[in-house]
Design brief:
Length: 149
Amino acid sequence: MTVYRGCDVPEDRLYDVPNDLWVRFEDGTARLGLTDVAQTRMGKMVSIRFKRPGRTVRPGGSVATVESAKWVGPIHTPFACEIVDTNEEAFAADILIANRDPYGEGWISVVRPIDPASAGEGLLGGSEAVEAYVARIDELDLSCFRCAD
């Protein structure tokens, strides 16, 4: 894992950098979550509304809507997919789970790509993702932090 200005960028996943979303492909599905940059920029999460499993979402469509201390808006998927599962129970137990553990227990949704062969197009991984996030963090003049309470 690379850490830059306090921001974690695990190299074991792919990233939709403009939308600050991570993607990890798992046996025909993909797990989606907010990056450390996203959770820092939005501040403490206040609420989240998940789209229901079974729903089909177009590329750029929303799998959930987040309200935080600084922001209200959708969490976009980078590819067309069907929502398979949500992390609703974890967020009900601890609304700050994505602030505390964005790459682990704070995942958002599991989806099934409509076209698995092209689902990774446009996503960055490895050193490319790290370079893109270093530039993004510098551009935003950001230092990441996690919720302590």
